[in-house]
Every structure is written in structure tokens, then in C-alpha cells.
Amino acid sequence: MMRLPPRAARPFSRRRLLASASLAAAALPFAARPRRAHGVTAAPLRLILWPMMNGAEDRFFLPSAGNLAAMSTVTEPLKTYQGQITFLKGINVSGSDNHFAVRSIFSGATIPNYDSPNPSNKSADQIVADAFTAQGLHKLHSLHLGVIPADSYELYQLYGRSTLFFAPKPVDYEANPVTAFDRIFNGGVAPNAMPPPVVPNYGPEVADLLDAEMGEYADRIKSSGAELSKIVQHRDALRAVRPTNTQPMGMAPMMGPKAGSLASVEKLRASLQGNARAAYKQAYYSDIFDAQVDILASAVVSGLTRVATLQSGSADGNQVDPVGPGYPHHNTSHGTQDIFAQCQRWYMTKLARLLQALDVPDPLDSTGKTVLYNSVILVMSECLPISHSSNSVPTMVMGSGGGALNAGRFINANGATNKAVLQTLLKVMGVPMASQFGTQTIAELLK
Amino acid sequence: MKGATSRRRTLAGAALAALALTACGSATIGGPGYGPGGPPSPVGGGGGTNGGPSTGPGAGGAGSAMPAPLTCAAGGGDAPGRRVVRRLTSSEFEASIESVFGIASGSDWTGLLPPDPAAANGFGNNVDRLTVGPEYASGMQATGGRIADLVTNATNLPRLLACSSKGDMACANTFLDTYGTRLYRRPLTTAEKNRYLALFTKITTSSPAIAAPANFKTWVYWTTSALVQSPNTIYRSEMGEAMAGGRFNLTPFEIASALAYTFTGGPPSPALLQQATANQLGSADQVEAAARAMVFDASQNVRPEFKTVFLTFSEQWLGLTSLANKVKDAQAFPDFNDAVQTSMAGETQQFVSSVVFDDRGKPADLLTAPYTFIDATLARYYGFGAAAGTAFTRVDRPAGWGVGLLAQGGLLAVEAGTLETSPTKRGHLVRTNLLCNIVPPPPPVVSPLPEPTAANTTRERYEKLHATDASCRSCHELMDPIGFGLEHLDASGRYRDKEGAFDIDDSGTMVLTQGGRVAFKGPTELAETLARMPETSDCMAAFMASFAFGVDQNEATCMVASATSALRAGSLSLIDFYIQLARSEHFRVRSQ
Predict the structure, then answer these.
(1) Contact between B129 and A172 using a beta-carbon 8 Å cutoff
(2) How far is CA A313 from CA A116, A267, A286, B403, B493, in A?
(3) How many helices (H) and strands (E) does chain B have?
(4) pLDDT average, residue stretch B259-280
(5) Dihedral class, residue B225 (left if φ above 0, else alpha if ψ from -120 to 50, else beta)
(6) Maximum C-alpha span of chain A
(7) What is the rounded distance in angstroms from the CA atom of residue B268 to the CA atom of residue B262?
């Protein structure tokens, strides 16, 4: 029999972690026994990445450096939180251009063309999530929610389109907020949660049996490298979700106190429960957005996870923004920019919803700081409208990083790259610098 | 291996589809001229704007891009493709479970897997895209558990396994021989059986006090869960056995699986597995005969399973999967609603079914059939024909509404904006999915279209930007002038006599691969022009083979060169071409 590569370090899948984390979903159990963070502050830090698809022209996005309080056309909905927002002017996406730079902005990979290979390195959120998980700082490795992240269910992860990527596969976004909520919080009938089995648990034995079959299968096809890599990936995936004696295969452990319902999720339940395709209906776009923001906030505030991303639309997709009669996002980005600025402003109302939800006392922080204060939220665009240049893309860092960040500033970072931003954020999160992000940081961001 | 050119090509298609409205660039591409068969005669490079296809030599204008045709480096013969393991799609998996255990999908064991990722050509069954990561593995665990629950419930277990009340080792063997074989699509090896039987021994010896039937139920539960998750179930092996000359013969069981999933969307029947056991799938004749039996019943009616397979292909080929998600401007198109979108999807299914299944049509028929199908919703929406309720009725299209596929309301609505048509998108669809031409991806920097005003038409706006700017023109002249021919069909798929107050100029031109261009006027002439082009037939062949074999169309075309020639020559209908795929060497042999 062929000797397979060493067993992977068992990275947690989102679904498994969503399932296994349900005990923590009610938030307060975590608050009662906060884990101290690491690195530059002792605060319980959170990291949220928010790609801002298609960008905005500086004149609509950047506030006047001398009058930050006034904000800008696009960011005015965030005005309440101006003191927690630092604008970074002049950030270039290193080595990349156009919508495909969305694969670069958080990974630091160079993606100069549509047909460039996908990044093989982890994005910043995964680096941080790995570190937090290893330190036991949260139960859920990371949370990835999508708001119609493809033109249709059937075009999910359409090859060559602009999706955020994590090694070695594109991100699996949960696009249905009802499914996401139920999996995370067990708020309803969790799709993956089976009733207690009526049979004794032999899940580990079955896992061993499957592992043997994977090895045998790999041995049979070892002369084809490409096909072998599929089987190795499959085997690693099975190992990552291996059941235990106490957590049977496919079982989501029942959590203790329930998280309660979220009105925004319940509003969609009748339409979306058990209906994955319906979550790609444009008619639900705004409502799904609200629900996903609320789910993300609930998970992050509770400390269930400290790392999350939210992708709304796809970079070159045409989700219709409910602005006026409705504008297809990408097409509008090529048109009159004051109209497109209104579209992007609409997205900022959703971001404001998130900030509002995070602006609450941190249950993990006995000093009374807010979750927003303890958070780092990176908003970055992949390219500019019309020109599709990835130089000087809109970039904001929100939150105070537990006091490590210079919040409420306007920094002219002219010439700095997304890599420098990411490296700086790793530093704030107390994670060792990643070689893929180079050696530079943005000192002005740090206190 | 998938060639770099192929990959670039599919990416280019996806990219341009996304950025179709305004992409401009200076890239030019070349390509060899026409193959045998002959295209419509080209006219001069000026691009006539009236009359039908006319004749005369010519070449594209200065700075024009040349659309590169589909080519096969392997030459004229069929070239077996690479060895692969193909993960079942969600629908193939569900069909397998339904067939093997007789439990219906739509119950609580479906819908737990992440969506199947789409390839650049929109197909959801690409062999390189269907992999298993933690998300899928976790979903499959849960799926396996739920299927095991159903298999072992009080109703199903006695039905599936009469000996279950006895619950002995012999019955365990029966279960593996019956259901394991169906799931693995071949008999289990001794080693495989021994692993499952060792689990039986462990369960029975661990709980000797428990009655045999209860222990047996526990074993069936966990064995079912494992069988469902096994790589032997999840993957269709097309690896073959090494032969001389670097070739690999697919095993009879691999051929049986390939046949069943290609022509029924589900697993091989016990009878087909029996044919494999008897080594009756070794020759092209035998394989074709088996395929034909899966497509037609004894009365030569097309079986429903094959209809579903082919209609899934056509929906994905034509990019219609996003139709249900399309939103149109509510003021401009107040009648365009969910009911209309649903009926439009049904209209195209009925149309394709009629041409392909009922009439045994050829590629040209798909493009030029003068009829369509409407229900009451579409009769009201389109304003022609009479139909009652949800039943579809065949009606001839009124003059000006075009013919064939390109006049389908759903396709026109997808390849358009919310308010306006998109000659670029429509032209791009023709280039990439009907002609299989290579269109370069959009450049990094593009200019915006002129804003819509009440003073100019969509065509004028496109021409103002794309035709006057040389860098835009080089690529857009491959697409926009095709789309102009459809300008009488609006963004919601309906005929319009005028665009606002303005007359519509629906004359168009098509740059030909061998140089020159052909002129046409309106959607019917566009369809007739395409129907005469051999590239159209070749391209349909390539996409059908792509779907059948799970590889991209550029890679697939070399595998089916002889059948493609026959389709082009008119000696095969579309459905016969699909069946002929089973005769290709690729169905029995692999080269690397």
C-alpha cells in the first residue's frame, strides 16, 4: 500500500466548527471565563474582513483630511463611528489588478490576470484563525458568510470569477442565513444535526474504515498525480472532520442555552429554510444581508469565533443594489460615479449595522470596553470603478484593536501595499509576521 | 492535462461575460481558417447593413481581431482523453441513493452538501472542479447518517433485507453483495468486504447480550454510513488498466458507470452491471447499443432520465441557470416577474425537447425552428398565441420575433442588463457558446459607456464607444455587431418595434474566422447565418462532449472528432450525436 503524506494538522472546517461550537453560541458562557488574548494587547481581539467590491473614486470615498467628522458620500452612514475608523489613502494591491485582485487583497498573492493560478497561501484571516484556534481562544475557527456570492446557485464558485480564496480551495460561503443561524446557534432544526442515534456509536471505527479505503484508493491511482491529489485532499478532509467517541459522525452536539432568535433570520425562515437555491434570489438580497450581518455579529460578540468574513455579491457580479429603481452593481460601476457612490453608500448602511451590533460591552472583557473597540475590521476594495486599477483602492480599518490601533485617523499611505496593511494587522492580532506579506508595516496605524 | 490555451480560453470567456458591457482592449488573436464545409460567403470588410448574407471576398478591417475557431491539435481522429476520477455531482449522488435504496430524494437526507462548483463554461460537472474538502466531507457525514437512519428504520430494513430479522454473518454478506455492489458499481474486493465484516464481528462481540437483530441493525446503520461516504461510491473511476503503448483500458465496470451517469444521470442498473460482469461492454458496438437502450425505450420514445440529462446540459450551456435570479427595472418592465421567469425557463425546455427529442433535430434546427412554446403566462406576457393554464402549447413566432434558440425570451433576458439590452453580452454568448471562438478577456482599464439619454439608442451608444475607439473595436467588433441583430428583442425578452421614439437598426455583421465578414439583418437572418456555419455544429458537438465527459469543450473536441464530422455533415441528429459519444474511444480507452 502506498504511504500517504503525513496526516494534516486537522484544520477545522467551518461546518464542523460551527457544529462543535454550538455550546458556546449563547455567548455568556464565554464571558464568564474569558481567555486573555496575546500579543500587543491583552484584549480579546476580533478580526473581520469585509471586501468592498468594485471600489469607489476617492472623491466619493475619502473624507476631507481636515474634516473627518463630515465623512464622505459613501461613508456617511458610518458617521456615528467616525472615531473608530481610520482611512488609509493610497493603498495599492501588490502585483494585481482588476477584479481578480479580490483574490489578492487578503492573501497578498500576486494575481495579475484572470487566468493566474489561485493563491496557494493562506489569507490573513486564516492565519489569525489558525493561531487563535491553536491557543484555544475560540471554539469556531472562522466564520464565512455570503450574500448572494454567485450569480446563481448553479454558478457557485464559478471558475475564473472573483472569489476570495483560501488555500487550497475557494472559500465555502454559507449563503443561506437560515442555514447558517441554525448551524451556528441551533436556533431551529439544524440541517446537519441528526437526532440522537438509535444505535451505539461506531463513528470512530467507520472513520478508520474509510481511512483505509482512502489509502487503498490512493494506491490504485497513484500513477496519476492530478487525480491522486484529489484523493489526498479528500482523505485530509475526512480526517479533519473525524468523529470522536463523544461526538458521533454527523452529529452536532446540542448546545446549552439557546441564542434566541434573530428577527432578521426569522423573517426569512419560511422562504429559505431548506432551500439553498432561494438564497440566491435577488428579491432577498437586502434581507439576507441584514441577517448575515446579524449572525456574524452574534457569533463575534459572543466570542464563539473571533475571525469572520462577509462577502456580498461577487467582484464582477451584478447583484442589484436596492438604490432607487435598482442598479446592477458591476454595470453601474462603469457608469456615472455619483450614482455608483450611492450604491456603495447602501453597502455602508449594512456595515453600519454591523458596527452598531459590535458597539456593545464586550462579554469577554471585564474592563468594560466594547467589542468594536476590541475589533479590527478591514474594509478593502479590489479595484476602482471604471478604470479597474488596483492602485489607491478604498481602504478602511475600523475598531481600535483593543487599544493597539490609532483609530479615527486619516493616513496618507501613498505607496504602501495591501501586504503592509495585512502585516500590520497580524502584528495587532499578536500573530507572527507572515513572509508572504513582506517586511513592511504601516507604523502610523499603530499606537 | 488541460492545455494552457484551453484554460486561458475558458477563463477569457468567463471574464468577458462578467465585464461584457464596456470592455475595450487592444489584444488581437489569430487563428486558422475554415475547415471543410464552408461558411456563409463573406462580404467586404465594410460590414453591410442591409439585406441578407451576401457574397464576396473580404477581410476584417484594419486592427480587427480574428476569432479563433475551435481546433484540435490531435488532428482528425478521435483522441482518448486523460484518466480521471470524477466525484459525483449532487444530483448524481442523489440519483444513486434513490436507485440503490429506493428512498426518495427531497426528504431530509438531501441538501446537506455544499453546491457543486461551476466550471468556467458554466457546467457543474467538471472533473477538475468537483473535489472533496472539509465542507463536503462534513456534509457527507451527515448525509450518510440520515440515509443510514432511513435504511434501518422499521419500514425499510425488512424491505431491503429479508434476512435482517436473523441478523447473522450470512445476512451481512448479502447486504454487502447487494447494496455494496450497487453503490460501488462493482463487486467489493475481499479486502473491502473483510473490513465491513470485521466491524460486524466487533459489534456482535462487543454487545453479546444484545439480540442479534439489534446488533445487526447497528451494523447496517454504520455500514450504510460508511458505504455512502466511501471513495468508491463518491468517485466514478475512469482510470483503467495499463496496456501496452501507454494506454489504459477502462474496466467493464468503469464503462458501465460512465454509460449510466452519462445517459441516465444515475448509477448502472443491476442489468448493466451484469453486462459488465459478462464482459459485454468491450466493443464500440456493445457500448453504443447499451447507450441507445438508455436513451430510448422499446417504443423508441426518449426515456425521461435522458431528457433530464440533456435539458440540464442545455440549461447550463445556454447560461440559463441565472434566469430565476434576474431582476429587471420595475418601471420599464413591470410585467417581468417570477411567474414569467419560471415560464420562460419552461419555454426553453419545451423548445429544446421538441427539437431534440421529438423531431430528432440537427444543430441548424435548434437555431432556426420557427416555433416556440407558451403557456398562459407567456401568452399574456409576449402578447401572441393562445394557451390555457400552465400547459405549454406550440405556436409559431410572429414576424420579427426571430427564430430558434436565440429568440428565446429567457436567454435574451439573461444576456441583457436590467434596463437595456447588451449587444456585447449577446454577441459574446454567440461567439463563445455557439461558435466556440476565443474572445480575449477585458483589459485592465476600460472606459464607461456613454450614459443613456433620450436622444440615442443602445446601438448608437455602443458604437460611439466601441466602434470609434480602435482599442475597443478590435474585440468588440467580434461581439457587438452580432448583438445588434437582436436589438428588436428587448432586455426582458419581448419584441419592441422601436427603442423609445427611435427606429431600431438591427443590421449586423459577423467577422469570420477565415477573414472577412458576413452581413445579416435581424434575428432570423442571424440565426440562419449561424445555422449555415460549420463552426456552430462543431461547437455544439464540443459542448455536448464537454458535458458528457466532464472536461472543458476545448479538451473534449479532440475526443469526438469523427462524430463531430458526422454532425457537421448532417448525417447525425443531435440526439444521435450524443449517443455516438459512447462509440468514441474515450469511452473505453484512456491515453495518459
Answers:
(1) no
(2) 21, 21, 11, 35, 25
(3) 26, 11
(4) 98
(5) alpha
(6) 69
(7) 10
Which 339-368 residues of chain B touch chain A by CB within 8 A? Answer: none
Asked if the C-beta of B96 comes within 8 angstroms of chain A's C-beta atoms, the answer is: no
DSSP codes of every residue in B446-495:
-PPPPPP-TTS-HHHHHIIIIITSHHHHHHHTTTHHHHGGGTTB-TTS-B
**Distance of CA B391 to CAs B338, B350, B386, B397, Å?**
17, 10, 11, 18
If you measure CA to CA, which chain B residue comes closest to A200?
A: B218
C-alpha span between A398 and A412 (Å, rounded): 16
What pLDDT band is residue B1 in, cutting at 50, 70 and 90?
A: very low
Q: What residues of B are in contact with residue A271 (Cβ under 8 Å)?
A: none
From residue B163, give the alpha-carbon distance in Å to each of B157, B169, B212: 9, 10, 12
Strands A143-147 and A307-312, bridge-based pairing: parallel
Q: What mean pLDDT comes out for the span A227-247?
A: 86
Q: Report which of A405, A407, A387, A393 is spatially closest to residue A90, judged by C-alpha positions.
A: A393
Residues 6+ apart with CB under 8 A from B334: none
CB A147 within 8 A of CB A23: no
Tens of pLDDT, residues B397-449: 999 999 999 999 999 999 998 888 999 999 999 999 999 998 887 776 666 66
Q: B76 falls in which pLDDT band (50, 70, 90)?
A: low
**Are the C-beta atoms of residues A77 and A399 closer than 8 Å to each other?**
no
Say yes or no: B10 contacts chain A, CB-CB below 8 A. yes
* Stretch (H or E) spanning A398: strand A395-398
Kindly tell me the sign of the dihedral angle through the C-alpha atoms of A145, A151, A152, A156: negative
Residues 6+ apart with CB under 8 A from B403: B367, B368, B369, B370, B397, B523, B524, B527, B528
- List residues bridging with B237 in a β-sheet: B85
CB contact under 8 A, A213 and B21: no
Least confident range of A75-89, B98-112, B149-163, B225-239: B98-112
Question: Angle between the B338-352 and B304-317 helix axes, to the nearest 10 degrees?
Answer: 120
Q: How far apart are CA A193 and CA A250, in angstroms?
A: 7
Which pLDDT value is given to residue B208?
Answer: 81
Q: Helices B134-151 & B90-101, crossing angle to 10 degrees?
A: 20
DSSP-derived letter for residue B268 is: P
C-alpha cell at A97: 489588478
- The span from the CA of B533 to the CA of B526, in Å, is 11
What does pTM read for this prediction? 0.85
Query: Whole-angstrom distance between the N-terminal and C-terminal Cα of chain A?
Result: 57
* Nearest alpha carbon to residue A364 among A23, A37, A25: A37
CA distance A180 to A164: 19
Examine the pLDDT at A19 and tell me if it is beyond 50.
Answer: no
Write down the pLDDT at residue A252: 40
The answer to whether B327 contacts A172, with C-beta atoms less than 8 Å apart, is no
Q: Any residues with CB less than 8 A from the CB of A149 and at least 6 apart, and which?
A: A156, A163, A173, A175, A311, A312, A313, A314
From the list A216, A230, A320, the residue facing B131 with the nearest CB is: A230
Which residues, in sequence order, are CB contacts of A166 under 8 Å at separation 6+?
A: A107, A122, A123, A126
What radius of gyration do chain B's Cα atoms show? 27
Per-residue model confidence as pLDDT tens digits over A293-312 = 999 999 999 999 999 999 99
pLDDT for B58 equals 31
Contact B117 A250 (CB under 8 A): no
Higher pLDDT, A22 or B138: B138
Gyration radius of chain A over CA positions: 22
Q: What is the DSSP string of B2-51?
A: --HHHHHHHHHHHHHHHTTTT-------------TT--SPPB-TT---SS
Chain A residues with CB-CB distance to B85 below 8 A:
221, 227, 230-231
pLDDT tens column, B340-387: 999 999 999 999 999 999 999 999 999 999 999 999 999 999 999 999
